[in-house]
Amino acid sequence: MDVDSGVLMSSGIESVFSLDGRTAVVTGAASGIGRAVAKTLAEAGAGVVLADVDLAGLEHVRNEIDSSGRSALCVEVDVSSRSEVEKLVAAALDRFGSVDVMANVAGIIRNASVIETTEEELDAVLAVNLKGVFFGCQAAARVMVEQGGGSIINVASAGMDMPAPGIVSYAMSKAAVAMLTRTLAVEVGGSNVRVNTVAPGFTDTSMTRRHFTDAGGKVDEDARDRLWNERASGAPLGRIGEPEDIAWAILYLASDAARFVTGQVLRPNGGVVMP
Ligand SMILES: NC(=O)c1ccc[n+]([C@@H]2O[C@H](COP(=O)([O-])OP(=O)(O)OC[C@H]3O[C@@H](n4cnc5c(N)ncnc54)[C@H](O)[C@@H]3O)[C@@H](O)[C@H]2O)c1
């Protein structure tokens, strides 16, 4: 990564945001925010490694990226497995020769109060949302320290700042991700590796649609519109998020435009949370 002073000033806005010649690994890339991140980073010039448990979904996203003339590699991976995440980063190195951006996007949610949450639900959420992000950070940071630079972006949630009933395991996992991010930022800053959190607000994806989607995938549009309107009316910007709103924030943090930004939480949330 080029971080010499003066280079950015003279090279123009487009090249500041360009990821030409870089490699980005994106977990959760088969759907929603991860899909938008993968497509956006590819559009910015990165060779992209798409990772998810959903291989069919990944292949669909790879076809979308391929048809825009960019290159992408699919790796089926369960991020809660340390060895699978290590293999993912090794596959990225093997194919592209570096890992410059690691976007830890994969996540799950379980709805239950503190009193009702089962041990299985707690383990499941922490395994993906916290351990999965930890393993992604660890594997990517090792490579980035060695190569002398990189940008890690961990996806948390507005839920990390805003206690709400019924999502305790999810909110806890996301708050912990912010501390993981800050700790790693302190540890690897001297190697020119930046580590930041993106905490999206309510965004239109399969995670938020699942409450009114039946087993056959049919969406109850009226129920969806009611919830969307309710969420939008509570937001200063008057709408809920689109996956691209989050992807642009991640592109910023991945790029040289954010070369002086580390250990921070960026909140693309329409103004819903202003801690
Ligand atoms: N949608 C929102 O409103 C919202 C708000 C804040 C934060 N987020 C966060 O954004 C991220 C993406 O969520 P989304 O809304 O796009 O949801 P989504 O369900 O559309 O996508 C999540 C992806 O993660 C993958 N995944 C789940 N478990 C995995 C595992 N063990 N290993 C690998 N991949 C796995 C899924 O297959 C899926 O493709 C999550 O971390 C989520 O918590 C979402």
Written overview of the protein:
- Helix 5 (119-147) runs parallel beside helix 6 (168-188).
- The model has no long low-confidence stretch (mean pLDDT 95).
- The radius of gyration is 18 Å and the shape is globular.
- The two termini are 32 Å apart.
- Strands 3-2-1-4-5-6-7 form a 7-stranded parallel sheet, with helices on both faces.
- The chain has helices at residues 7-17, 32-43, 55-66, 82-96, 119-147, 168-188, 206-209, 221-233, 243-254; strands at 23-27, 47-52, 72-76, 101-104, 150-155, 193-198, 265-266.
- The chain is built from 9 helices and 7 strands; from the N terminus they run αβαβαβαβαβαβαααβ.
- The protein has a single domain, classed as Rossmann fold.
- It is of the alpha/beta class and 275 residues long.
- Bound molecules: nicotinamide-adenine-dinucleotide (NAD).
- Nicotinamide-adenine-dinucleotide binds next to helix 2, helix 5 and helix 7.
Summary keywords:
binds nicotinamide-adenine-dinucleotide; 275 residues; Rossmann fold; 12% strand; seven-stranded parallel sheet
Proportion of beta-strand residues: 5-15%
Task: Let me know the CATH homologous superfamily.
Answer: NAD(P)-binding Rossmann-like Domain
Q: Percent helix among the residues?
A: 40-55%
**Roughly what is the average pLDDT, rounded to an integer?**
95
Q: What is the CATH class designation?
A: Alpha Beta
Low-confidence stretches: none
